[in-house]
Amino acid sequence: MKHTFVLGLLILSFGMYGCAKEENFAEQPAVESNPPHGVQMAEKSNELSSWILDEADIRFYSTKTDKNDNDIVEEGVFNTYFGYLDKQGNLKMEIELDSVETDISIRDQRIKEWLFETERFPKVEIQSQIDYDWINTLGVHKEVSKVQPLTISFHGKTIQTEASLKIIKLDNNTINVMTQEPIHLNLLELEMMQGLNSLTEVMNLKSIGYLVPVKFQGNFKKP
């Protein structure tokens, strides 16, 4: 099956929320704006890179269906990530799965343990090849749309997909990249259904969707 992705570059809805059924949620829990990204660039990456991911907003969405067939969409974010585009056009991003935040701590913990299995699979890795000269020659305040192939390594699997991106050069040292459409991850193909079923059962739901839309927006800066 061909995928269309967050981490938007990525990302990564992880139809995956593990709260007890007695917990009361709004349809879309509020997420604090400007989440801390908690990223420290390695010296090697600084030496190789012409563009380093400075700050990003990586969000995913899950759809729950209760026993009365009511659909509820919920949102989460990732707060720790790393990314760069080097002089050979190699794009790399990593998302720390332990940094997931859905505004409810027990839900976060169950996602980490049951769905992501972060002790075994701590990160999502995204790689791609981009025309470096094309990025550098983009004019200031100019924008362009681009469909970019991606390789995503997640939960022990590697998938090939693509992201529809909008890229804006904000100034000579900053480019903004955003997904124009969510990237959809298929938890069935990623063999994550055991964790998803555990979350469905503990929440006393009819189902949780296994297609997860992910959105990405981030600024890359020259070091």
Average pLDDT: 83
Say which CATH homologous superfamily is assigned: Lipid/polyisoprenoid-binding, YceI-like
- What share of the residues lie within helices? 10-25%
Q: Which class best fits the helix and strand makeup?
A: mainly beta
Global morphology: elongated
CA radius of gyration is 18 Å
Q: Provide the spatial order of strands within the biggest beta sheet.
A: 1-3-4-6-7-8-9-12
Which segments are poorly predicted (pLDDT under 50) over 5 or more consecutive residues? 1-45
Summarize it.
This is YceI-like domain. The chain is mainly β.
Write a structural description.
By secondary structure, the chain is mainly beta. 15% of the residues lie in helices and 43% in strands. The protein is built from four helices and twelve strands. Strand 8 (157-171) and strand 9 form a beta hairpin. This is YceI-like domain.
Features of the shown structure:
223 residues; mainly beta; Lipocalin; 8-stranded antiparallel β-barrel; 12 strands; YceI-like domain
Task: Give the SSE layout.
Layout: H1 43-48, E1 49-65, E2 71-78, E3 81-86, E4 90-96, E5 100-101, H2 105-116, E6 123-129, H3 132-136, E7 143-154, E8 157-171, E9 174-179, E10 183-186, H4 193-202, E11 207-208, E12 211-221
Antiparallel strand pairs: 1-2, 1-3, 1-11, 1-12, 2-5, 3-4, 4-6, 6-7, 7-8, 8-9, 9-12, 10-12
